[in-house]
Amino acid sequence: MKSLRSLKSHLSVTPRISLRRIMDGAASVFAAAAVTLLMSGMATAQASKYLKLNKDGSGNIVFATTNIKKGEESKAALKTTFTDGDSIYARAYFPGKMGQLQGEEEGFIDLWVDGEHQKRLAFTNKDVPADRDQTLIYVYNTKDYSPDFKADIWNELSAGEHKIKLVVGKTKFMREGISVQDQGDRYALKKDDVHKAVYLSDSSFTFTKK
Fold first, then answer.
1. pLDDT at residue 208 greater than cutoff 70
2. This prediction's pTM
3. From the centroid of its chain, how far is CA 49?
């Protein structure tokens, strides 16, 4: 995974725009916003009953010592405390669908240990398709599939209790900020593309190293 890249007085005069065009444009914006809110509500209504939104709007993550299959969470013993002999699986719930990643955009899973960032794993829509609203993560010592995080992260932990935090998100290109470009015979305003993180899921568990 992978940031943000005196205006002279000779700027062209802004063309006049009729009030009617402004009102029509505003109506279109409000209509589009209504559709977006409706679709967002539908997505939330269809989401897993295990989804719980955090204060920042991101979804939660549940953990277990066995594979947490979609729609079969009740068959897994969900918990938030583990020891180094356990297997750890996680199912991350998103507040909506993953969405299509464009260009250099990508998904990521961050692992934090005791408040310090340890590892970021990157993924694409091949790993988590655009229409998915959740994903399974093989965190530690998993038996049916290789863990997503290498053993050295866990081996280097000191004995005792540790707080492990997982954050799932995606990078998103957005138009933000304004810069001035010298185009030789004139100066022009340009909106800059910036990479911003959009957080999808965020939860923690306790891990005890013996």
1. yes
2. 0.70
3. 20
